[in-house]
Amino acid sequence: MSSKPRTKPATERRDELMNAAEKLFLERGFEQTTVEDITTAAEVAKGTFYLQFSSKTEILDALRQRFVYNMANTVTTAVEACKPPDFEGRLAGWARTCAIQYLESGPLHHLVFVIAPPPNREGLTRNILIDSLEELLKSGAQGGAWSVDDPHLTAVFLFNALHGAVNQPGNEDMEMREKLLAAIITHFFRSVGVQG
Amino acid sequence: MSSKPRTKPATERRDELMNAAEKLFLERGFEQTTVEDITTAAEVAKGTFYLQFSSKTEILDALRQRFVYNMANTVTTAVEACKPPDFEGRLAGWARTCAIQYLESGPLHHLVFVIAPPPNREGLTRNILIDSLEELLKSGAQGGAWSVDDPHLTAVFLFNALHGAVNQPGNEDMEMREKLLAAIITHFFRSVGVQG
Amino acid sequence: MSSKPRTKPATERRDELMNAAEKLFLERGFEQTTVEDITTAAEVAKGTFYLQFSSKTEILDALRQRFVYNMANTVTTAVEACKPPDFEGRLAGWARTCAIQYLESGPLHHLVFVIAPPPNREGLTRNILIDSLEELLKSGAQGGAWSVDDPHLTAVFLFNALHGAVNQPGNEDMEMREKLLAAIITHFFRSVGVQG
Amino acid sequence: MSSKPRTKPATERRDELMNAAEKLFLERGFEQTTVEDITTAAEVAKGTFYLQFSSKTEILDALRQRFVYNMANTVTTAVEACKPPDFEGRLAGWARTCAIQYLESGPLHHLVFVIAPPPNREGLTRNILIDSLEELLKSGAQGGAWSVDDPHLTAVFLFNALHGAVNQPGNEDMEMREKLLAAIITHFFRSVGVQG
DNA sequence: AATGAATGAGCGTTCATTCAT
DNA sequence: CATGAATGAACGCTCATTCAT
């Protein structure tokens, strides 16, 4: 009857379900998406969902985890591309990569951390990223690249500026996007008292 | 039988319901609050709700509208307290009042704009406030108080920085709060190239 | 559209639901009956069930309680119809009424106590009735009407004999039923060493 | 790869599944036990279950059949240990063995006949045992050992008395158990008009 | 205007059964 | 024979909304 094999490796099924769920959650929201919507989109039966996830909440957790993992990886790699004492390069790299990642991941971050945040605050990308930015600001200050009074507050401020600016609608346009990235980096530099 | 009058002016009923709803939505979230929760808290019968609002969504809209109205009013009033050419005073006033309002209104803003945003982008405080900030930046630039390349982008950036920073947990402490307000104003000034 | 009034007194609705549930539980079993079966039979919507009972289990509890109440009442009344020293009359009354009640209540007892017994043993009719029989045996022994070595064991034995005998299929026939009642009473008397 | 052979004789598999099912059904009930519970306990895959039994109901039937077979065998053997004209010995043997069997088999009988009875009445141990008791009562009456008016009714009565008495909680204690057995035999004798 | 009983579509989850490997 | 991923019908329960009183 069916040309496709009936069974797939567990990880593949999981991914298909997660991709379908991600798409639907972003389109209509977590509460507004039913498990059946997800399984229909993933072209499996309802029961198959529960072979991979023990509840609807669990797939959201998995989505969050996947997002954090990708995000943290990418940003770290980008920062490491510039070695001290090129602190400005590191800061620009952080800002640029972080912004791009948010732009690419679209409102996924918004979904998994803002709209449907984890029950406890542990492991928030938000925190992970803010911490990494704070460290960057501190090491740059120590290295004499700039001076910041309160690295934590500055990190919070800049992170949220970036996050909010990037979430603003209208960033689909590539030209706008480049302008935005440039503006973000300029503001980052200004905020630490560097001319860029 | 009952000492209280059973009928009240419509506006009073509306307010009681909205207050109850606001409290509950903030405590447990929109989806997690039932219409019955609201009417119980407001001490009216379930049906009374539908005399004032045609659906559960509608009371959220009303809440949002009330929030925007209060917010815009307060910020405008604060800015007008300083007259040109004191553009720095106006900018500081904008930042300070806006931040305080968010801090006071607490997660209400988060609820009505971030978690349960309006279906269309019209009338977002976000936009209203960003527009007012953009105007302020432009007029300050014209007045020679500072210079900004792209007033819109800067407004977006600063608004979101403020919004995010203020939403950060840990702002209940009054001392922290003052430090935060000061830091925000400093960043605002730095971003427009003024020493503050 | 509908000729019947939409609302009924809560107790009436409750009774209708309980009657429908009793019928269905007896016909097909507790697990095999769905809440929707019950509401369909009671001619109300599914949600109406949950206005009266907070779960499917709860209606079974209510059924059990109703059964115990009726049973205990009837047997007590029957026993009290004969006053001491007519202990034989009291014993015969107990046996006869208890048997008739079981015959009339049909397998309801079986359902609520044997098939779907309460989570804790407290308040079992079984126990209530056995206790009352034990008391009767003791008072008769004290009054010199008969002698029993171990009133508790005898009560247990006789109660179960009666219960089992009455549950036997084939008791629908009225003639059979009378023979059965007579046989039960005879055995009761024999068991306490009385000729009847 | 695996040290154990992956295939076993059908009867062995069947027995393992039946033993696992019996244990689980008694522990948590028929409806509350899933096929997967059974196969997990029997350490086979889910599909293997359906190699031996065509449905969950069928394994219950098999359990019932096994129970009846064992029960009938044991009681018959015990009765045959006394030869006529020792009818009293045969009756005492019947009562004692039957009671002990129920005590040993524990709630298994309760499960397979009371809680989850067969759809049709055919082959009920209940009936088989009642029939054998009825025969015993008749032959004893013919042999002049006792007199009973209605052997069938008496058999029904006594069987149910025994069954119910034995099912009563609190029979785990060995001393209680002996008292119970003695009381049962006494009542059996009294019921047929013998002093024992 | 106010009430709250009644409605019924909808959802998350379970599990007996099938069947390709 | 044995496996276990896949299926999908079914169920208990919730809750926004309606409407007769």
Describe the structure.
By secondary structure, the first copy, chain A, is mostly helical. Chain A has two domains: 1-54, Orthogonal Bundle (Arc Repressor Mutant, subunit A); 64-191, Tetracycline Repressor, domain 2 (Orthogonal Bundle), CATH 1.10.357. In chain A, 70% of the residues lie in helices and 0% in strands. Chain A is built from nine helices and no strands. Chain A has helices at 10-28, 35-41, 46-52, 56-80, 87-105, 108-115, 125-142, 151-167, 174-191. Chains in contact: A-B, C-D. Chains A and B meet through helix 6, helix 8 and helix 9 of A and helix 8 and helix 9 of B. Chain A binds a DNA duplex (21 and 21 nucleotides) through helix 3.
Structural class by helix and strand composition of chain A: mainly alpha
The first-level CATH class name of the largest domain in chain A: Mainly Alpha
Distance between the termini of chain A: 64 Å
Largest sheet of chain A: none
Number of domains of chain A: 2
Rg of chain A, Å, rounded: 20 Å
- Specify which chain pair forms the largest interface: A-B, 31 and 28 residues
Shape of chain A: elongated
Helical segment count of chain A: 9
CATH architecture of the largest domain in chain A: Orthogonal Bundle
Give the uncertain stretches of chain A in residue-range form: none
Indicate the multimeric state. Answer: homotetramer
The share of residues in helices of chain A is over 70%
